[in-house]
Design goal:
Blueprint lengths: L1 H9 L5 E3 L2 E3 L3 H11 L5 E5 L7 E6 L9 E6 L20 E2 L2 E3 L7 H16 L8 E6 L10 H7 L1 H4 L3 E4 L2 E7 L2 E10 L2 E9 L3 E2 L9 H14 L8 H8 L5 H7 L5 H4 L8 H7 L3 E9 L5 E2 L2 E9 L6 H12 L8 E6 L9 H13 L4 E7 L5 H4 L5 E4 L9 H6 L7 E3 H19 L1
Parallel strand pairs: 5-8, 5-9, 9-19, 11-18
Antiparallel strand pairs: 1-2, 3-4, 4-8, 6-7, 7-20, 10-11, 12-16, 12-17, 13-15, 14-16
Helix pairs in contact: 2-3, 3-15, 12-15
Length: 438
C-alpha cells in the first residue's frame, strides 16, 4: 500500500488551470493503477476522451443484474506543490519516513485511490463473485471541478460507470467526544459556483486621477460588498445530526442548530471547528482572483474579479447567483458578469450501504459511531448524486490523526499520511465491498 502510494505521488499528476483551461497528465496515474487491477476476474476500460486525462474503470461483474451495484471512486490528480513554499521534504518524493508517507496527494486522495485499486485486485484474486457489480473508477480533473473527468464520462458514456451506490472522499476523521469515538462520513457536499466579473473604465494616465474612470475602485467596492454579504443561515437535517453526535453541552448544541443564535457561539467551538460550522450553514462567497493593469503609471481599461461561491444545502444556487448579481449591478455592465453554479445535494442514510459502513467502522475502531457529516468543500460526489447514485464520502483513519491535522493537510504544506491510516483504509474498502455485495 505505501509503495503504491509513493509511486502515485512521484508520478506528479498535477491538474491546474492555464487561464480558464484545465490541464493535467492523469493518464500516468491511471496507467499505474491499471497495472494493479488488470488480470483474471476484472474487466478494464480505458476512457480517454481528452489526451493525457484518462479515466480508468475496472469492474468485477455481479451475478445478479437486479442486485445493487457499488462504485469505489477515487481521483488521480493532485493540486500543485512547491518545495520552496516551505515543505520539509520533496512534495513529489513519496518518501516513507518515520511511519508516514510524505507528498502531495498523500491525504487528498491518492491514499484512498490506491486502497480501492488494491481492494479490487485482492477480491478478484480471492475469486470473489459479487451479487451486484463492483466498479472501481479512477478519474482525472477532480481538483479543477471534475468537468473533464467525472462529468465528461457521465455525459458521454454513463452506462460504463453507472451504479446504484458509490463511495468516494472525504471521510474517516475520528474524534473523541463525551459520548465516545465518532467517525465522520460525508452525506452532502456544498454546492459550487463561480462569478467572473469584468469592471470597465477608461484607460488614462495615472498622473491625472481627477475625473478618471478607474475600474479598480469598482472592483474594490465589489470586494467590500461581497465581504459584507450575509446570506440566509441554513440549518439542515445532516447538520442537526452531526451536532447531536458531538457531545456538546446542551446550550451550545441548541445554539448551533438555531439560525438566530449560531453566529454567537461559533468561537466557542473547539479549535478548527468554527470555520467548518460557519461554512456548513450558509452560502459562502470568497473573492479569490483580481487581475488588471499592466503599468504602474497607467489606469487600466478593465479589471477582472473571480469569486468562489458555494451554496449550502437548502439554498437555491440560482437565487444565490441572483443576489450576487443584484449586489454588483451598479458596478458592472450587464454583459460584464458571468455566473455558473451547482446546488448542494444530500444522500439519505436510510440505506443498506450506510448500515454496512457503520458496522465496518464499529469493528475497525472498537465501538465507534459513524456520523453523517456535511462537507464544506466539493468533490466528484456532486456529479454522482444528480445522476441518481447514492453517494457517501467514506474512509477509515487512525485515531492518532486528529481531524484538525487531517484537514490542515488538504492542499497544505507537508501533506502526509501514517501507515496505520493506510492499513485501516485498505481494510475499510475491502470489508465494505465484500459485505455489501456478498
Amino acid at each position: 500500500m505505501a509503495e503504491l502510494l509513493g509511486v502515485l505521488i512521484r508520478n506528479r499528476c498535477v491538474s491546474r488551470f492555464e487561464g480558464i483551461s484545465s490541464i493535467g497528465n492523469e493518464s500516468v496515474n491511471a496507467a499505474t493503477l491499471r497495472a494493479v487491477v488488470e488480470g483474471p476476474g476484472v474487466d478494464v476500460d480505458w476512457h480517454e476522451a481528452i489526451d493525457g486525462r484518462a479515466s480508468l474503470v475496472a469492474r468485477i461483474a455481479g451475478s445478479d443484474p437486479a442486485a445493487p451495484s457499488l462504485a469505489l471512486m477515487g481521483h488521480t490528480d493532485v493540486v500543485p506543490a512547491d518545495e520552496a513554499d516551505g515543505w520539509t521534504r520533496d512534495p513529489f518524493g513519496g518518501e516513507l519516513v518515520d511511519g508516514e508517507v510524505w507528498g502531495r496527494g498523500a491525504v487528498d486522495m491518492l491514499n484512498q485511490t490506491a486502497a480501492m485499486a488494491l481492494t479490487v485486485r485482492r477480491l478478484a484474486d480471492e475469486g470473489f463473485r459479487p451479487r451486484g457489480d463492483l466498479v472501481f473508477w479512477a478519474v482525472p480533473d477532480e481538483e479543477n471541478g471534475g468537468y473533464l473527468g467525472a462529468k465528461q464520462v457521465l455525459e458521454s458514456d454513463q452506462d460504463l460507470v453507472r451504479t446504484d451506490f458509490a463511495l468516494t472522499e472525504v471521510g474517516g476523521a475520528a474524534r473523541r467526544t463525551p459520548k465516545g469515538l465518532v467517525v465522520d462520513a460525508s452525506v452532502s457536499d456544498k454546492g459550487m459556483g463561480a462569478v467572473h466579473v469584468a469592471f470597465r473604465g477608461r484607460q488614462s494616465h495615472a498622473s491625472l486621477p481627477h475625473g478618471a474612470d478607474n475600474p479598480l475602485f469598482k472592483a474594490a467596492e465589489a470586494v467590500r460588498r461581497i465581504g459584507a454579504w450575509r446570506p440566509q443561515v441554513r440549518i439542515s437535517e445532516p447538520w442537526r445530526r452531526w451536532v447531536g453526535a458531538q457531545g456538546f453541552d446542551a446550550d451550545l448544541a441548541a445554539a448551533l442548530v438555531d439560525a438566530s443564535r449560531i453566529d454567537e457561539v461559533l468561537d466557542l467551538l473547539p479549535d478548527g471547528m468554527a470555520a467548518h460550522a460557519h461554512a456548513c450553514t450558509r452560502c459562502t462567497a470568497v473573492p479569490t482572483i483580481l487581475q488588471g493593469g499592466e503599468k504602474v503609471n497607467t489606469i487600466p481599461q478593465t479589471v477582472e474579479l473571480a469569486v468562489n461561491f458555494r451554496p449550502a444545502l437548502g439554498d437555491s444556487g440560482e437565487a444565490m447567483a441572483q443576489e450576487l448579481r443584484d449586489l454588483l449591478a451598479d458596478l458592472v455592465e450587464e454583459d460584464g458578469i458571468l455566473i455558473f453554479h451547482q446546488d448542494a445535494r444530500a444522500s439519505s442514510t436510510e440505506t443498506p450501504l450506510w448500515d454496512v459502513l457503520a458496522s465496518v467502522t464499529d469493528q475497525a475502531h472498537d465501538g465507534a459511531t459513524l456520523v453523517p457529516a456535511m462537507l464544506a468543500a466539493w468533490t466528484d460526489a456532486s456529479w454522482l448524486r444528480p445522476a441518481g447514485t447514492t453517494t457517501y464520502g467514506f474512509g477509515l483513519l487512525s485515531e492518532q490523526l486528529s481531524p484538525d491535522q487531517y484537514w490542515s493537510r488538504f492542499h497544505g504544506v507537508d501533506e502526509r499520511i501514517d501507515l496505520e491510516s493506510l492499513e485501516l483504509s485498505a481494510l475499510g474498502w475491502y470489508e465494505v465491498a465484500k459485505r455489501f455485495l456478498a
